[in-house]
Design goal:
By secondary structure, the chain is an all-alpha fold. Helix content is 84%, strand content 0%. It contains eight helices and no strands.
């Protein structure tokens, strides 16, 4: 067990109620997971709605023949499956994080047990020692040295969340344009695709992948901006 783990474990065993510093850390840890519960819950609703829409469009789209679906029908089926999968995955994530939100002490104990301290050099060691001293002191006020780092993390994560959010909107809009255009072209041209249709198809897949990645980055950076103390601790442990 490393020094940071040891200090946190000792303070937890002595009781978080008697240590305002640890209480602040645990409260921030609960907030960190609450963000994912709230945002994840909204994403569950969004993707469930999308899944219903895609399945409804899938059923309304006529079948070309008994053994062949049109490109439009295949698109709605694929997006319906993907939306349903993301809905179930996000629901699972929300339930898992709800436990840490309402019972943060147990989750935090498991969190510190998973620390894998890497060699961060004297720079990280300096922050670790400052954090350990603060936790052991039990002082409710965060030391200026750590508070400065936390403020920097808020600015960093807030900026990244904004940039990723803007890019997410752009890629979602671009994806809608590409897939709608491709569906219209497939209706007009049938199965004969030219270079431009193939380019639209590959670009459409890329926009979906990038949109999902940006969605994850928006959520992660929102967590870091709203609960920076936990993000700071994650940085110390890695």
């Amino acid at each position: 067990m490393n020094e940071l783990q040891n200090a946190l474990s000792e303070v937890i065993e002595s009781g978080s109620q008697a240590n305002p510093a640890l209480s602040a850390v645990i409260h921030n840890y609960a907030k960190y997971h609450a963000v994912l519960v709230i945002v994840g819950g909204l994403l569950v609703i969004l993707f469930a709605w999308l899944s219903i829409r895609f399945w409804a469009k899938f059923k309304r789209t006529p079948i070309v023949s008994k053994s062949k679906w049109s490109f439009e029908k295949k698109v709605y089926f694929s997006f319906g499956i993907m939306s349903l999968f993301i809905t179930l995955l996000m629901a699972l994530i929300v339930v898992a994080n709800a436990t840490n939100t309402f019972y943060p002490l147990h989750g935090f104990s498991l969190f510190i047990d998973s620390f894998a301290i890497s060699d961060g050099g004297s720079y990280k060691d300096e922050w670790r020692h400052a954090f350990i001293e603060w936790i052991r002191s039990g002082n409710e006020s965060i030391p200026a040295m750590i508070q400065q780092k936390i403020n920097a993390r808020i600015e960093f994560h807030a900026a990244k969340a904004f940039v990723c959010g803007a890019l997410l909107i752009i890629f979602v809009a671009l994806g809608l344009f590409l897939w709608n255009s491709l569906i219209k072209r497939s209706k007009a041209m049938g199965s004969k695709w030219r270079y431009i249709e193939k380019t639209y198809f590959i670009s459409g897949i890329a926009t979906v992948a990038l949109s999902l990645l940006l969605m994850v980055m928006v959520v992660a950076n929102t967590q870091g901006a709203i609960a920076p103390l936990t993000a700071f601790l994650v940085g110390l442990s890695g």
